[in-house]
Amino acid sequence: MIRLAFFDMDGTLCAPRFYVNGKMVGGMSDEAWHAFCEKNGEDTYRFCKPVPSVTEYARKLRECGAKVYVLSTSQTKYECDAKNKFVRQNYPAGFFTEVLTVEHDADKLPVIREIAEKEGVRPEECELIEDTYATVLAAIVAGIRGTHVSMIYCDAE
Fold this sequence. Notes:
This protein is of the alpha/beta class. It has one domain (4-16, 49-156): HAD superfamily/HAD-like (Rossmann fold, 3-Layer(aba) Sandwich), CATH 3.40.50. It is 40% helix and 22% strand. The protein contains 6 helices and 9 strands; from the N terminus they run ββββαβαβαβαβαβα. It has a 5-stranded parallel sheet with strand order 7-6-1-8-9, with helices on both faces. A two-stranded antiparallel sheet has the order 2-5. A two-stranded antiparallel ribbon has the order 3-4. α3 (77-90) links the parallel β6 (67-73) and β7 (98-102).
C-alpha cells in the first residue's frame, strides 16, 4: 500500500505549454527557461494544463489514504512561485499535502526518505511519479516505487 506519493510537475502533473516569441512551445534550453521564468514570474505556467490521467491517479491514491505531494525541481524563486500558482489554480485546496521543490533531481530521493522517516513510513510504501527515467530508476534502486508517467494510464484504470 502506498502511504506517501510524490508527483513531479513538469511533464507529469502538467503538460508543458509556453508562449515564446509568438508561438507555443513544449520546452526550451535551461538558459532560455531561466530567462522565461524571470520574465513571466508567477505566470510562467499560465498556458500549461493538468494531465487528467495523472490527476485521477493522485485522487485515487488520496482516496486510499496516501498523503500526496508535489516534488519538483526548481532552480529559481520565480519557478517555485509559478509552480505553486499552477497548483493553487488547478487543484482544490488541500489536494496536495505540500508543494516541495528541490534544486536538482538527485535531491528528490533524500527528501522522500526524510519525510518517510518523519512519518514512520517504509521506503516501499512511498511512490515517486516522474517523467525522467533516470530518476524513476534511482527510486526503484532505493526501494521506493518508481512510476514513469507513461504507465499512469494503465495503472489508473
